[in-house]
Specification:
Blueprint (H helix, E strand, L loop, with lengths): L1 H10 L1 H4 L16 H11 L28 H17 L14 H13 L6
Helix pairs in contact: 4-5
Protein backbone atom coordinates (compact mmCIF):
# COMPACT_ATOMS: atom_id res chain seq x y z
CA UNK A 1 0.00 0.00 0.00
CA UNK A 2 2.92 2.36 0.62
CA UNK A 3 3.97 2.31 -3.06
CA UNK A 4 0.45 3.31 -4.13
CA UNK A 5 0.46 6.12 -1.56
CA UNK A 6 3.66 7.54 -3.05
CA UNK A 7 2.12 7.48 -6.54
CA UNK A 8 -0.99 9.20 -5.22
CA UNK A 9 1.21 11.96 -3.76
CA UNK A 10 2.68 12.59 -7.20
CA UNK A 11 -0.70 12.49 -8.93
CA UNK A 12 -2.16 14.99 -6.40
CA UNK A 13 0.81 17.36 -6.46
CA UNK A 14 -0.95 20.05 -8.55
CA UNK A 15 -3.96 19.90 -6.23
CA UNK A 16 -1.95 19.91 -3.00
CA UNK A 17 0.39 22.71 -4.09
CA UNK A 18 -1.58 25.11 -6.29
CA UNK A 19 0.61 27.46 -8.25
CA UNK A 20 3.71 25.27 -7.96
CA UNK A 21 5.59 24.82 -11.21
CA UNK A 22 5.81 21.21 -12.37
CA UNK A 23 8.94 20.34 -14.30
CA UNK A 24 8.80 17.05 -16.16
CA UNK A 25 12.10 15.26 -16.62
CA UNK A 26 11.57 14.01 -20.15
CA UNK A 27 15.03 14.06 -21.70
CA UNK A 28 16.84 10.75 -21.47
CA UNK A 29 20.62 10.81 -21.76
CA UNK A 30 21.26 7.06 -21.95
CA UNK A 31 18.65 5.34 -24.11
CA UNK A 32 18.29 5.31 -27.87
CA UNK A 33 15.21 6.49 -29.72
CA UNK A 34 13.84 2.98 -30.32
CA UNK A 35 14.16 2.06 -26.63
CA UNK A 36 12.34 5.23 -25.57
CA UNK A 37 9.61 4.65 -28.16
CA UNK A 38 9.03 1.11 -26.86
CA UNK A 39 8.99 2.33 -23.25
CA UNK A 40 6.59 5.16 -24.09
CA UNK A 41 4.25 2.73 -25.84
CA UNK A 42 4.12 0.47 -22.78
CA UNK A 43 3.79 3.34 -20.30
CA UNK A 44 0.93 4.88 -22.31
CA UNK A 45 -1.27 1.95 -21.23
CA UNK A 46 -0.96 3.00 -17.57
CA UNK A 47 -4.06 5.12 -17.09
CA UNK A 48 -2.98 6.40 -13.68
CA UNK A 49 0.13 8.19 -14.89
CA UNK A 50 0.97 11.80 -15.56
CA UNK A 51 1.64 12.69 -19.17
CA UNK A 52 5.25 12.68 -20.28
CA UNK A 53 6.97 12.62 -23.65
CA UNK A 54 10.31 10.85 -23.41
CA UNK A 55 12.96 12.15 -25.80
CA UNK A 56 16.61 11.73 -26.56
CA UNK A 57 19.18 13.44 -28.72
CA UNK A 58 20.83 10.07 -29.28
CA UNK A 59 20.44 8.02 -32.46
CA UNK A 60 17.45 5.70 -32.96
CA UNK A 61 19.70 2.67 -32.48
CA UNK A 62 18.72 -0.94 -33.05
CA UNK A 63 15.06 -1.86 -32.97
CA UNK A 64 13.83 -3.44 -29.75
CA UNK A 65 13.35 -7.21 -29.76
CA UNK A 66 10.87 -8.77 -27.36
CA UNK A 67 11.19 -12.43 -26.49
CA UNK A 68 9.57 -14.71 -23.97
CA UNK A 69 10.81 -17.67 -21.99
CA UNK A 70 9.25 -20.20 -19.67
CA UNK A 71 11.63 -19.67 -16.78
CA UNK A 72 14.80 -17.91 -15.74
CA UNK A 73 17.07 -20.76 -16.84
CA UNK A 74 15.65 -20.72 -20.38
CA UNK A 75 15.96 -16.94 -20.41
CA UNK A 76 19.60 -17.08 -19.29
CA UNK A 77 20.47 -19.73 -21.90
CA UNK A 78 18.88 -17.65 -24.68
CA UNK A 79 20.80 -14.54 -23.62
CA UNK A 80 24.08 -16.47 -23.45
CA UNK A 81 23.48 -18.05 -26.87
CA UNK A 82 22.72 -14.68 -28.45
CA UNK A 83 25.89 -13.13 -27.02
CA UNK A 84 28.00 -16.11 -28.12
CA UNK A 85 26.48 -15.89 -31.61
CA UNK A 86 27.42 -12.21 -31.79
CA UNK A 87 30.95 -13.03 -30.66
CA UNK A 88 31.27 -15.74 -33.35
CA UNK A 89 30.16 -13.13 -35.89
CA UNK A 90 33.16 -11.02 -34.90
CA UNK A 91 31.66 -8.60 -32.41
CA UNK A 92 33.72 -7.57 -29.41
CA UNK A 93 33.83 -9.85 -26.38
CA UNK A 94 32.72 -6.88 -24.30
CA UNK A 95 29.28 -6.76 -25.90
CA UNK A 96 26.85 -5.09 -23.56
CA UNK A 97 23.24 -6.27 -23.74
CA UNK A 98 20.31 -5.29 -21.60
CA UNK A 99 17.35 -7.44 -20.83
CA UNK A 100 14.27 -6.95 -18.74
CA UNK A 101 13.48 -9.48 -16.06
CA UNK A 102 12.24 -9.49 -12.50
CA UNK A 103 15.15 -9.18 -10.08
CA UNK A 104 14.58 -12.71 -8.79
CA UNK A 105 15.41 -14.04 -12.27
CA UNK A 106 18.68 -12.13 -12.68
CA UNK A 107 20.63 -14.44 -10.40
CA UNK A 108 20.16 -17.40 -12.76
CA UNK A 109 21.15 -15.27 -15.74
CA UNK A 110 24.36 -14.18 -14.04
CA UNK A 111 25.15 -17.78 -13.06
CA UNK A 112 24.64 -19.13 -16.58
CA UNK A 113 26.50 -16.25 -18.22
CA UNK A 114 29.45 -16.54 -15.85
CA UNK A 115 29.91 -20.17 -17.03
CA UNK A 116 29.97 -19.08 -20.66
CA UNK A 117 32.37 -16.88 -22.58
CA UNK A 118 30.21 -13.86 -21.79
CA UNK A 119 31.78 -11.25 -19.52
CA UNK A 120 29.49 -9.91 -16.82
CA UNK A 121 29.72 -6.38 -15.54
Amino acid sequence: MAARSEVDNILRFDHDFPGAKVIRLERNYRSTGHILAAASHLIAHNEGRLGKTLRTEDVDGEKVTVTGSWDSEEEARAIGEEIEELQRAGHSSTISRSWCAPHSRCANSKTVLSRSACPIA
